[in-house]
Task: structure prediction
Amino acid sequence: MINPVVNVRRERVEVRKIFNCLFEHETSERLIHVWYEDLDGYIIYEDCTDALQQKRKMTYVELFKDYQRVWGGKEK
Result:
């Protein structure tokens, strides 16, 4: 199977899945932009209030346990 590719800092990186979605924390209403899932299984995201737009990591379980999708992606 061929993995999708994203450009990260002008470098092509293979990823497991591209998200490009906004997620909101269930209790704190924190908004994050989820970019993709890397080949190690980590979700790469950035906090929408972070002016530096630093990429951060979390696990797949953390994302879907604490957050709910509010925009983007394919609806099933």
